[in-house]
Amino acid sequence: MPYIYAMEFNGLPLHPLIVHVVVVFAPLAGVGGLLYAAVPRWRWWLRWPLVACAVIAAGAGIIAVQSGQSLENQRHLQTLPELATHAARGRFLRWVMLAFLVPTALAVWQLGGPYIKGTTNTFGGSSATEYGPLLFSFYPNPNPAIRLRTNNFRNVLSSNPCPA
Question: By CB atoms within 10 Å of each CB, which of 21, 56, 76, 80 scores lowest?
């Protein structure tokens, strides 16, 4: 592996410091992504914090891998087997965070807003009013019990938005 210059912050190796950024922002981005997908009424509020967490986590992941390689070369730690596992997991997480960033950005971009050019009816202007509350449905089970599932939204409109 080629020599990578020492990455330090105030005389401390940068790797242990930047790993803490990844450890904080990657789970925040993951939880934010789950909430963004599961709770439509929060999407408008969550969109920019979610993108910020995803960008910070992905950027910190890239820097963590580079600073880890720098620390490994600087301290001559290439022979430690635990370090090889740690480095492989770090490289994998870097790609996972970059892969997470793409659908996150696309989902936020697709959400748009009430001011999208050509919008004629915003159904209330937010995803909460557009989709409405969760719809709980009953499904038959193989045994005598009935299963309650939530897999849809229900929005009862006061008028027909598509007149004939």
Answer: 76
